[in-house]
Amino acid sequence: MVEAIVLTLQLASLTTLILLIVGVPLGFWLARDTGIIASVVSALVALPLVLPPTVLGFYLLIGLGPNGPLAPMLAATGIRTLAFSFPGLVIGSVLFSLPFMVQPARNGFAGVGREAFEAAATLRAGPLDSFFSVALPLARGGVVTGAILSFAHTIGEFGVVLMIGGNIPGETRVLSIAIFDAVEQGDWGAAHQMSAGLLAFAFVVILTTTLIEKRAGGRAR
Amino acid sequence: MMIRWLETVARRVAAPVVASLVLLIAGSPAFAADLRVAVAANFGAPAQQLAEAFEAETGTRVAISTGSSGALFAQITQGAPFAILLSADEARPKALVDQGFAVKGSQFTYALGRLVLWSPDAELIDSSPAILETDRFSHLAIANPQTAPYGAAAMEVLGALGLEEELAVRIVTGESIAQAFGFVQSGNAELGFIASSQLATAGGGSIWIVPEELHAPIRQDAVLLEAGNDDAKAFLDFLRSSKGREIVAQFGYGLVETTQPAPSIYG
To answer: Which of B98, B172, B188 to mutate to test the interface with A (most CBs of A within 10 A)?
Structure first.
């Protein structure tokens, strides 16, 4: 059980880190660009909110495998498939949690307003500088909410992992899978322990994000 | 902000969603089956064919739900609305009888499972387990040994070959034998232990039919879950009839000799 908890935390941390690097700039761009391309990207990013995890899992099973588009690149490194591997789960989790990072970040940046950037420009701040010293601090609430939601959503991920994981201890057997296993094996004691832990965790996460949003909202007014 | 956004979405879609739900609920009885049968994943294809043959004879519609025997067992103990369980083992039907979820005396072996090592690659397996001792594969798929009898049998075979520890890191487990099959079919695992009944869907490749003495026989038992359900009894009789046994045998299963002939509802 400890192994599953550690693995789950590793997966969620790495996924959140990647999403911060990828999702925050993406949210920034989507908040400021109103063009058709931005709308299309925005819709693509939101897809995992609507699709069943099985759809993503099914395409990942094919896409990460020896007949998928990544196969030639992987073959050079001696890897046949990314299914059944931790890196495979990270790819799946990043795609699956993308909207949970991008959506709040975008909303955070949208709330910053043009005036702040104009002021930064008057002070001769470059685009990169004004992003880090103006936009990011002002949109902090949204980014933090996004990070917390991405982390929590990855902890609670089940369908995608079930489809591509192969249930390998220490590699792909995350908490949600361990619970599923425990229930199937009739080991309800273990299932209760892990489930109750996740229940408490989920409550704390939702309470925290609500409080952050309240504070951010109060400041905006 | 996420939550506020979700609220806006919810408000916009609420009316159409409620309207379509009402329509769906009003229309749903049209799809209801007469008989719900829980089936171990390995027996999914033959069960479907049995259901069709049964419906053709009696007009009773049968809905097949597949899963690992362990998952189905857990669902049944929590009141899942199945009238019959076609398990992949003897132990779970017996436990259901002991715990009062199944009808005493209704348990019988409907099929003897056969385990097959399969690869879609026609060159990989040379009708022997030799490949398992090589480095020519990175993943071997099996069903979860804890919940699926075919998985347990696969581990027994590896044990008998003395390869259990050596292959431990290359084994990937599917939730059921059906998922293990999917892992091989998608090419993510080069080979896997599957049920002989799945070879029909496999469409070629290379195989090693595992000798029966390498693992305990996979006795697949059926059990009646609803005592007063006449449709269910009729289906079990059909499964035991010569016609039913013929379908079971077509999919590569062994059959136990019956001492008592099937009750003669269908002659």
So the answer is: B188
- B127 and B70 housed in the same domain: no
The token duo for B172 is 């990937």
Which residues span the domain enclosing A202? 2-31+45-220
What CATH number does the domain containing B238 carry?
A: 3.40.190.10
Note whether B177 and B146 are same-domain residues.
yes
Shortest alpha-carbon distance between residue A80 and chain B (Å): 8
Q: By the 8 A CB rule, do A111 and A139 touch?
A: yes
Measuring CA to CA, which residue among B103, B104, B66, B106 is closest to residue B88? B66
- pLDDT per residue, tens digit, chain B (267 aa), is 556 666 666 677 777 777 776 666 655 554 567 899 999 989 999 999 999 999 999 999 999 999 888 889 989 998 889 999 999 999 999 999 999 999 999 999 999 999 999 999 999 999 999 999 999 999 999 999 988 899 999 999 999 999 999 999 999 999 889 999 999 999 999 999 999 989 888 888 999 999 989 999 999 999 999 989 999 999 999 999 999 999 999 998 999 876 555 554 443
Nearest-by-CA chain A residue for B69: A184
| Distance separating the N- and C-terminal Cα atoms of chain B | 68
Tell if the CB–CB gap between A181 and B147 is shorter than 8 Å: yes
Bridge partners (DSSP) listed for residue B207 = B118
Q: Which residues pair with B113 in a beta bridge?
A: B218
- Kindly determine whether residue A104 and residue B68, on different chains, have CB atoms separated by under 8 Å: no
Q: Is A38 a member of any domain?
A: no
The last residue of one of the domains, among B209, B232, B259, is: B209
- Is there a single domain that holds both residue B103 and residue B164? no
pLDDT one-digit tens code per residue, A32-72:
888 999 999 999 999 999 999 999 999 999 999 888 888 88
B191 at the A interface (CB within 8 A)?
A: no
The predicted complex's ipTM stands at: 0.76
Choose the closest CB to B187 out of A67, A84, A167: A67
B122 and B186 both lie in a single domain: yes
Quick one: closest CA in B to A85, which residue?
A: B172
User: Which 8-state DSSP code applies to residue B34?
Assistant: S
Please report the pLDDT score of residue B34 as a whole number: 86
Same domain? For B233 and B101 the reply is yes
Residue A152 lies in a domain: yes
Rounded Cα gap, residues A104 and B5, in angstroms: 9
Instruction: Assess if residue A122 is contained within a domain.
Output: yes
Count up the domains in chain A and report the number.
1
Asked if A108 and B166 count as a contact pair (C-beta separation under 8 A), the reply is no
What's the number of domains chain B is made of?
A: 2
The verdict on residue A40 lying in a domain is no
Residue of A81, A101, A183 to mutate, interface with B, max B Cβ within 10 Å = A81
